[in-house]
Amino acid sequence: MDPKSERPSVPVGTTDLELLRKFEPVVYYTTGEQVYPAPVEPYVADASLWEHHPDGHDELLVKHGQMSMEKLIEPRPAAFGSIRYLRFIEPLNLGEAAQVLRDQAALRRQIGEFFHPGIGRLARGGFLPRLADGLFSLSFLLRGHLPAADMAAAELDYNTIREKHPEHVYYGRVTHQAGWTILQYWFFYYSNPWRSGFHGVNDHESDWEMITLYLYEEDGQLMPEWAAYASHDFRGDDLRRRWDDQSDLTIENGHPVAHAGAGSHSSYFRKGEYQAEVNPPLPGWLAGLVKAWDKFWTETLGQPAVNAFHVPFVDYARGDGLRIGPDGVQAWLPVLIDETTPWVSQFRGLWGLFAKDPISGENAPAGPMYNRDGSPRGSWYDPLGFAGLDKEPPPPQAQSMLEQDCREIMQRQAVLERSIPEKAEALQALGIKAKGMEGNPHLAKQYAALEKAIGTLGTEVRALRRESSENTALLQGLTRRLERIQAGVRDNPQAQIHNPAVPDDPSEALRFDRAAETWAAVSLSLLLFVIAGLIFFAPHYIWAGLAVILMLFVTAESILRGAFVQTVGRITLILAMLASVILVIHFWKWIILVALLVMGVSLMVQRLRELTG
Amino acid sequence: MPRKKNSDKKKSPMAVSVIAVAIVALFLLRLVQVYAPLIRHNFFRGGINGALFNGLSLTPLGSDLFSASSYLALSLAGIFVLIGFLRLRRWSWVLLMAWTGISLVISLVDYFYSHANFAVMASNVIIAFALNIPEVQRIFGIRKDIDGPKV
Hints:
By secondary structure, chain A is α+β, with helices and mostly antiparallel strands. Chain A has helices spanning 16-23, 40-45, 69-73, 94-111, 121-124, 127-139, 148-164, 194-198, 284-300, 342-346, 378-381, 383-386, 395-437, 444-486, 506-509, 513-537, 542-561, 564-612, and strands at 10-11, 26-28, 48-52, 58-62, 83-87, 168-177, 180-193, 203-218, 221-229, 240-242, 251-252, 255-260, 267-268, 272-278, 311-317, 323-324, 332-336.
């Protein structure tokens, strides 16, 4: 198919704003979503500005009610290690928090939208990941985190502001790199209530999300070629889809479609429920042990990979809620930004509360141009590298670059075809000369020098022959590709994807979904009760009892998940390994003895066979 | 004249024979464990000649009788599984793996809390590893992948 056919285009020279409007995305949200893209100004006006100092104390710079965009970017010297941040929700006391949660429930009833998780994330992971999840939940007692009431208050404030500012804003940026025209659509949300609202990984004040389109120029027209959506767990090539990839990318009247995760606002190409995974940071020695164990388990024992340390979370991108985009009830209001936009380039702080979470999940993000630590954001300064597109020329350039490559290789081959026979002949001449010197002790010095020259020339000839051979193979490959391009044959649009984002099929995940869901909800607590009972009633058998109970729980889980056979196999294998260690400890001398005897007999049999023919 | 082999018949890997031998060895070892406590308590001459329970806990006689009957059940189950295993039935692989797992748990509990039977433990280890061999799993229909040995 001609890549240009059925593809929207705009003439080169179109203004940036028109360009952004022409290809602006359609975003579908999940029913129950709490906040939608909104302008930054009312948010900033409703926030306070703070500085977290390296000694641990927080200083109020601008009070709530006195903030403005000018005050946001006002230069203020700060010590190394300090963090500037906005605070959207002021601290709530217990009574206020309770009131806010009641108000949020009333608001939900008024809006008439409720989120139903369906088969929860807990039932989708196995027993061990759930155990890790329990520990992850407990980690919030130690880590800085946002109370659920803060997210509720953010939703209430957002709805109040929305009455005055109902527009859905995207901040659009147009930039040009290496022949590509890049359109970035940045979306600002007042909160990220993924954990408190949708059983996700984290909550934080404010959220910045982004969609990028990559256009190329041909015949005076700009045409879209790739779309990249910022998403958890995916990097580089995995982030982008080609415009004609109909299996993944939906186009509505020339506009790419994205499905935003509920609360997380992460963008997906297809609607569905996605398993997001969090791998808790492990100490170096433990991570090394886990890696070694994984290698032994998969490569030596040939078992399927199991990551017991990851915590599964579901990102609900159902697309059954609000639709924002062209040709609909809710449209976008575009606002152009670039490096000269003051709040974009001059505020390097966080756009919400710095929750002092050491792994940053609960800290608010920085703006479009910066990371949380104030360093430049890769997706801003290197939008091509962000989606792994830095190695791809725009389609029209690809053909000419390939032709140029072929020409250069052919020229080099012509040179090699001349020089290799010349050098080979010279090498033979040296060889003949050396032969003539042999048997003449008085020519020893010249002979040694000649041998050295023969060695050098021989190496050079071999290298040239290898280069020629490699060039032939390379030229064949490039020529074939050139012929395909000239014939209009396109690559597989998903060839660059290594880890595709595939939504769950909950009906396939579980055998007895209701029972599995109930079991998933209660099993961890049940395990703790049984352990308590064991400590009280049978303290002498605590370790054996613990191991047996854990195995029983895992087995029960496997029956519900339809994975009994694999689970029994795995448990038995682990027990066998433990028993092997015990046997080795007790009988290592005997094991060495038997091994030596077996090796001796085997060697003897082989040698005797040789002897007897 | 050489006899023609039936090429359609599933060929058992060597490991299947190893497992079968190990099951028989285990059966014999378990029989010793069945009879030793019974002989110790003169069960064959005088039957059950004492109380089995002391309140909620087992008496030494009760404990030994319980162990002996458990081992007997395991041994009998082993013979049943062996028949299915030699006929290359999928259920027998699953049962044998589960049976080996239970047997290993008992062996390990014995090791940590009373007297270890290393011969039983070693037999179980051999069976567990042999059952895990990809060829064995494929022949019993446990592993469905097709990346078998390249010819």
